[in-house]
Structures are given as structure tokens and as C-alpha cells.
Specification:
The protein is of the alpha/beta class. The protein is 34% helix and 14% strand.
Length: 207
């Protein structure tokens, strides 16, 4: 069974934690992780972009000049795509970019991402993360003591507004409850900082 050190907020080692091999020590599946990241980013897109076609641009009802005899190219409307102020040909229209991936692929992707972070020593476990008041300096102190990377993902056991509001102004730091963990956030972080109880919840669901 793989083991990882558990630290307190001052950066001192307090214990060791045994990790479940089925979650934190599998062979990472790159294809599954790539699919999960593309799916996550696609699902974030609003898809509200829109351009006007020649039928939707106002004006252009009159033929600019007669069909023959002028020596110029024939034109039927000043709102055709080649005209200034004309409509857009083949432009984007509102659409839904969302797509679904199988649950088994999602699970494999997350376990692969967590395993790759553990293997690269980019995962840290904290015994608990409790703050008495909203203090950004306290979070900065904790992260400095644990020597986390510039981009740090803090995974809490449950939603904690005090920790969230304390950390939200720190560049590169993101705080999420364990039930919203996703492959993109894990791979995007230099360090994944788990609260000890959050590790148990991940293992409970994904082992």
C-alpha cells in the first residue's frame, strides 16, 4: 500500500496515511484524462456567440444598380457578405457544446490524474484546515509552510466559506469541496492539497 506523509498547518509531519492503490497508484491512462479535460472545457462554454447573416442585417432591399450595361459585376443587395456592412457568411450561431462521456471513463480519468500527481510528489495531505476568521494571510502562511507550488488546488472535506473566502484572492489558488473534484483542476494544479478526511471520501467513492 502506498503511503504519504500527513502535515499540520505549520508544515510539521504528524503522521502517515495509507492510500488505496486502486485510486492513487494505478497506471495513468492518458487518453481517458485527455477526453475528460476536453469534456470539462467544452461543458464550460456558453455557446452564445452569434453573427448576423445577410437575411438578418437591416437594409439592402434595393438592387444597387441595374443588372446589365454598367460594366460592373451584377449585385442584388448591398447586404451580401462581400459588401461593407453586409451579413456574415458561415459565421457562428448559438449552439450547445456539451457532450457526455461514459462514467467509467470519467472515473478512470480522475484516478489516473490523482495517481500521476501522487507519483510526481505533487500531492500533499493536511490533517485539517480550519480557520477562526477570514484571513488571507493565514492561508498564505499554511501554503508557504507546506511549500506548495504556484498553482495550488485545495480539496476540502466539505464546503467551508471561511477557507474559501480567505483563499480566493490568492493568485493561482483554488478551493473546492471534495464532491466537485475534477480531472482538469487536478492536472492544472502544480500541487494538490488534500485535507485528510477528503482523501477518505475520494477512496470511498472511487476505490
Amino acid at each position: 500500500m502506498p503511503k504519504i506523509d500527513v502535515f499540520n498547518k505549520t508544515g510539521e509531519k504528524v503522521s502517515e496515511l495509507e492510500l488505496n492503490e486502486a485510486v492513487f497508484s494505478i497506471e495513468p491512462n492518458v487518453t481517458a484524462m485527455h477526453t475528460a479535460v476536453v469534456n470539462y472545457l467544452a461543458n464550460q462554454r456558453q455557446g452564445t456567440q452569434s453573427t448576423l447573416t445577410r437575411a438578418e442585417v437591416s437594409g439592402g432591399g434595393k438592387k444597387p444598380w441595374r443588372q446589365k450595361g454598367t460594366g460592373r459585376a451584377r449585385q442584388g443587395s448591398t447586404r451580401a457578405p462581400q459588401w461593407y456592412h453586409g451579413g456574415i457568411a458561415h459565421g457562428p450561431k448559438p449552439r450547445d457544446y456539451r457532450f457526455a462521456i461514459p462514467k467509467k471513463v470519467k472515473r478512470l480519468a480522475l484516478k489516473s490524474a490523482l495517481s500521476s500527481k501522487f507519483a510526481a510528489s505533487e500531492m500533499v495531505v493536511l490533517d485539517e484546515f480550519k480557520l477562526d476568521a477570514i484571513k488571507t494571510k493565514e492561508v498564505v502562511k499554511v501554503l508557504a509552510a507546506l511549500k506548495t507550488g504556484k498553482k495550488t488546488l485545495i480539496v476540502l472535506n466539505e464546503k467551508d466559506d471561511v477557507v474559501y473566502r480567505s483563499a480566493r484572492n490568492i493568485a493561482g489558488v483554488k478551493v473546492i469541496p471534495v464532491n466537485t473534484i475534477n480531472v482538469y483542476d487536478v492536472l492544472n494544479a502544480d500541487t494538490v492539497l488534500f485535507v485528510k478526511d477528503a482523501v477518505a471520501k475520494v477512496e470511498e467513492v472511487y476505490a
